Every structure is written in C-alpha cells, then in structure tokens.
C-alpha cells in the first residue's frame, strides 16, 4: 500500500486516490484535422517506461484536486509531487525544460502543443502493418 502525500491534505492512504494516467500528454492543436489513426494514437498510446514516470492523480475522497506525481514504476518510490501545469522535475529534483503553450492554471491537465508523432504512418490506412513507435507487439 502506498502512502501518498497530497499537496493540499498531507499524507493519506493510497485508497483515497485515483490514478489518472500519464501526465504531460499534449492535446492536439487542431483535433479536427487529425486522421482517425492520429486521433486513436492520441487517445490510446501512452509511454510504458521502466523507471521514473510522470503520472496524474486525483485525491478523490479528500480535496478532489488533481496533481502530478513522479514515481518509479519498478520500486514504486514516489520521487516528486507537483501541481498540475508545472513542468516535470527530473529524478533528482531539478526541473526539466518542457515546450508547450497549454494553460498553467491549477486545474490544467495538459502541457505541450504538439500532436503525437505518426512518422511511421503512411497515407493509406491499410498499407502499413508496423506498429507506431513505443507500441508493444
């Protein structure tokens, strides 16, 4: 069981929180211009890293506020907790540079401005059988 330190309420049991997925997923600038494949990649493809991973969490039975957490996916060690809209700190506590134009408001859930990369995607939806970069087979 994890003991998670809510930025608003202090340390609480893991059962009071809900996992919200990968943090810092950039919302596409022009979602109406995306192909079905590009939209599907935005919705469903996420990193699956071993080690430090930025996640979104909701304190659902407490203050009901979202926050980001940098957690090691191997050891479950919580390395940093920081507000929504803030840049991701690296594993030793320094802040890494991020690009983007998203809101930095406390309730912001996105950062960045670019759509997911689809460099391996061809014009014809049936002509490519390779999975997008980062996908598992």
Task: Describe the protein's architecture and organization.
- This protein has 1 helix and 6 strands; from the N terminus they run E-E-E-H-E-E-E.
- It has one helix at 36-44, and strands spanning 3-6, 10-13, 18-22, 52-58, 66-72, 78-83.
- The protein has a 4-stranded antiparallel β-sheet, with no helix packed on it.
- The radius of gyration is 17 Å and the shape is globular.
- The two termini are 31 Å apart.
- Mean pLDDT is 78; it is low at 93-128.
Enumerate the strands of the largest sheet in spatial order, edge to edge or round the barrel: 3-4-5-6
Unreliable stretches (pLDDT < 50, length at least 5) are 93-128
Structural class comes to mainly beta
Describe the sheet with the most strands.
4 strands, antiparallel
Order of helices and strands: EEEHEEE
Number of helices: 1
Instruction: Give the N-to-C terminal Cα separation.
Output: 31 Å
Chain-wise SSE layout:
Elements: E1 3-6, E2 10-13, E3 18-22, H1 36-44, E4 52-58, E5 66-72, E6 78-83
Antiparallel strand pairs: 1-2, 3-4, 4-5, 5-6
